[in-house]
Structure prediction request, 497 residues.
Amino acid sequence: MSNELKLYNSLSREKETFQPLKEGYVGMYVCGPTVYYDAHLGNCRTFISFDVIYRYLTHLGYRVRYVRNITDVGHLLDDGEDRMLKGARLEQLEPMEVAQKYTVGFHEMMRIFNVLPPSIEPRATGHIPEQIEMVQDILKNGYAYEVNGSVYFDTLKFMQQTGLYGTLSGRNVEELMAESRDNLKNQSEKRHPADFAIWMKASPEHIMRWRSPWSEGFPGWHLECSAMSTKYLGAEFDLHGGGNDLKFPHHENEVAQNFGSCQCKGARYWMHTNMLLLNGKKMSKSDGNTISPHELIAGDSAHVTKGYSPMVVRFFMLQTHYRSTLDLTDEALQAADKGFRRLMDGHKTLQSLQALPDAQPGALDAELLELMAGVADEMNDDFNTPKALARIFELVSRINALKGGQLSLDQVAPDTLDRLKQLFQEFIFGIFGLQNDDAADGDDGTLDGLMQLIIDIRAEARTRKDWGTSDKIRDALKALSLQLKDGKEGTSWGREV
Ligand code: AMP
Ligand code: ZN
Prediction:
């Protein structure tokens, strides 16, 4: 393996050596949340993945400008109702109150999972003039047409003239026609089913509306990301990311809009994260196959037997490569819980190791150095966090053996031990973004053991019908943000968030 960073580019469908446009700098855009409902764990997976990518690029010495937007003007639903407005109607709030409420919730969720804030977090509603300008440019270049105050991207013409449409998603025109899911209500206005709205005339009841040369209305679904990435990162920039469910039509249309407005290429590397599943099926609100981050952390869901700390969840996500699907099951989380504890303990043990000044570096020293180099090599291979973690666990085994006396520190150069300590610090906390949390503090499972004792005492009290003691225990735990959950298989506990 080499030292250069390789990443899988969805555009070429190949792993490529990463070459930024400007030496030393990286411009990165990731599609942010739509703030009309609470972020779910699937969203969290995508943002955690890009957080690690952002952290690693920074670690490599790049100055990264990371732009992650907030979609606060709704995407159109198939039934034509704006999601933001639907949220506002259901909750009897101003659309901007809905956006604010869920933006605050989203930031809190990112904080809990230790996701770093991006360099710029632009809002779609704060960039209406830029979006209108982009529509004007696309019209001027002949890749869009106006009908009754709405403006549509002329996909067929764009396809015929540039041959570019479908490159990212790998679809042909027939498929695109079949799959096009723009606002059905206005289907008749479009010249071609694959055309999509870049400006929509607002119906009388539509609250979020802005003046434009064509009508009072609002920008189309995909325009904000083209306009904001261009504004903050330039007409051509390094990286664009999002979940792979956004590849089509969202990202395909972004590429078309960028090219249609200024013959600009937009992103040079496209990166897509794979989906989070729950018990083997795609996490989905509609069929109840979902668990919220709060429920998972508190253990307040039929899908889990106990609560898992945010850091265990983050670790669990890093154990799978970002391009593979990840199945969330209670079993897998339990294994992650153990793995995370082992990692944190390994780190603690490493801190306690003292170098021997007159050590004679031998085969063990060479082996440690090789394993250490391997950690970065794995990350350079398309941010392979599971393999990098596997190398770190091999190092943990050596660390435990050094502590236990099966291996000897007189074979390890003081400098090697220092570098090992630095590597653990940098990778575990700096790049993987894990934090030592108390639930994972110590492999003896102290908290788990104490909680089990309390649960037993409470169960005994309840058998005696001593409700006073039972309530006292519950209330005292609640004050400590610990929650008890009574189920068929007994009582479990979790943390409240
Ligand atoms: P949204 O708020 O729906 O626009 O989604 C925000 C980000 O989360 C996008 O990049 C989506 O592709 C991503 N996303 C949505 N569902 C999942 C999932 N189940 N697993 C991983 N990422 C997802
Ligand atoms: Zn986007």
